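User: I'm preparing a small set of examples for a lab meeting where we compare how different chains pack in three dimensions. I only have the primary sequence for this one, and I'd like the structure in token form so I can line it up with the others. Please keep the answer compact; I'll paste it straight into my notes.
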Amino acid sequence: MYNLYKLKMKRKYYTKKKRILYGLGWFGISFVVGFIFQSFNWIILSYIAYGFGALSLYTGFFSTNDPNPPQPGEFTPEDFDNPADYADNIYRVLKGTKKNLLNLKIRNNGKLTKKNILNYFKDFDTDFKNAMDKTLEEQAKENSLQYVITPELDPFCIQIFLMHLPEKFEIEIWSKIGGKYEGFIACIKSDDENISVNLKSNSLPEPSNNATKKLNKILLKNKDVLDDELISKPWKK
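Assistant: Understood. Below is the structure token output for the 237-residue chain.
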């Protein structure tokens, strides 16, 4: 019974397209209902209907998703093929993965090892696929894990850098080479609350295209997302 309750009460994930579609739909329905109420001279009820419609319209265009990931099999990659949804999920995955790994560190008496992280992936509740020909165990021996979360981040690769364990780690999300968002890189460090975007990398030298610049612009609306090009780097001078 408890599991059934959790299933019924689980918040649903909406893509940007769906939020706008539902917002417009409820706005239209509310406007018609409000007009009917007004024709009967039910003024207060008409105001309530119009208010609900305006709120639905605002929510559809300006709301964002909660931290819950989409359910496996619920969507296809095409459902997320827009900068707003990618920005939403990049932010969620970077913050969520860091939080999960830090919690794992706390549960293991302040130590985080490669073995801990590999066990974390065994219980991963999101659809993901290995981005390399090597197994995750083989990758871990080389101090890095690469994987793709599908469908919500299908054009991107997530990489966790393990070379500084057990003290700290880094998580990057970057666009697959030749992809629509070529040149995109975002990073968060275990000892920093901020996400950095617009990074440059010798291993991914492709310049940012227009789609990538738009994606960065959306991400930078978050107060804890920083433009790496604007961060002072005295060691490079």
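A couple of notes for your slides: Residues 1-11 have pLDDT under 50 and may be disordered. The CA atoms of residues 84 and 122 lie 30 Å apart.

User: Perfect, thanks.
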